[in-house]
Design goal:
Blueprint lengths: L2 E6 L5 H10 L3 E6 L11 H15 L6 E4 L2 H15 L2 E4 H9 L6 E5 L1 H6 L1 H8 L5 E5 L2 H7 L6 H10 L1 H6 L3 E5 L7 H6 L6 E3 L18 E6 L4 H10 L5 E4 L3
Parallel strand pairs: 1-2, 1-3, 2-9, 3-4, 5-6, 5-7, 7-8, 9-10
Family: Belongs to the aspartate/glutamate racemases family.
Enzyme class: isomerase
Keywords: Cell shape, Cell wall biogenesis/degradation, Isomerase, Peptidoglycan synthesis
Length: about 250
């Protein structure tokens, strides 16, 4: 069996797992740290520490390679994890950048505080194209999504604030710079006053990973917190059978 580890600060990485399971058969082990989400406003050292704890746990399952399904972790901890564990770690930001560079025009990066402050997308897109990249940190969104708020007035109020610059300038491309955000894609599109090209970094990620496929996929999900709200969100995202276990680290 090929064992693929996928991890995130919470539920958002399930949007990446969904893409992987739909396109490549393997034994998947997912860890979502909902108990300590969000990561986006935490110090770098703490994010690296949490990421290390997650990988240390997943190593019990003989993982062949990892997908870092979190933009925040990708921008801060990829090098550390590769050096410590001497394994391949594929950061979701790499996929997001490759997807973005396929389009022309200016961009808005909608992301966590840490992802925005890293300027990963801005620096790399502007260095490799003639596009200008705007950035908006959206700190309230992860908490709302983790709490099961994926539509409604409360979410719309936050999105109205975060999408203000997009609606003012009609920015053609919007990068979902947090893997939680595809969960609320419909709400994002609803709160735009124009038609934008929404870029999900998880799109086509399966085609960017090379491993020997199995005959069937097995999906194992570990969450540091399980409640009725996030269980409903898991069921909404994943269209496959899975095993769910509570695991605090």
């Amino acid at each position: 069996m090929t064992n693929i580890g996928v991890f995130d600060s919470g539920l958002g990485g399930l949007t990446v797992l969904k893409e992987l399971v739909a396109n490549k058969k393997a034994n998947y082990f997912y860890f979502g740290d909902s108990l300590r989400a969000p990561y986006g406003s935490r110090p770098k050292d703490l994010i690296i520490e949490f990421s290390d704890q997650i990988v240390k746990f997943l190593e019990n399952y003989n993982i062949d390679q990892y997908v870092i399904a979190c933009n925040t972790i990708s921008t801060l901890a990829t090098d550390y994890l590769e050096e410590k564990y001497n394994k391949a770690f594929y950061p979701i930001t790499k996929s997001g950048l490759e997807n973005a560079l396929a389009f022309e025009g200016d961009f808005l990066v909608l992301g966590t505080q840490t992802t925005v402050e890293s300027h990963f997308y801005k620096n790399n897109i502007e260095a490799n194209s003639t596009s200008f990249v705007y950035e908006t940190a959206a700190p309230k969104l992860v908490n709302l999504i983790e709490d099961g708020v994926i539509s409604g007035e409360k979410l719309d109020k936050s999105l109205e604030e975060y999408l203000k610059i997009a609606n003012e300038k009609h920015i053609p491309n919007i990068i979902l710079g947090c893997t939680h955000y595809p969960i609320i894609r419909e709400a994002i599109e609803k709160n735009l006053t124009y038609k934008a090209n929404i870029i999900n970094p998880a799109d086509n990620i399966a085609s960017k990973l090379n491993f020997i496929e199995d005959n069937k996929s097995y999906v194992n999900i570990f969450m540091s917190e399980i409640n009725e709200k996030n269980k409903q969100t898991i069921d909404k995202i994943l269209a496959c059978d899975y095993k769910l276990k509570l695991k605090e680290i």
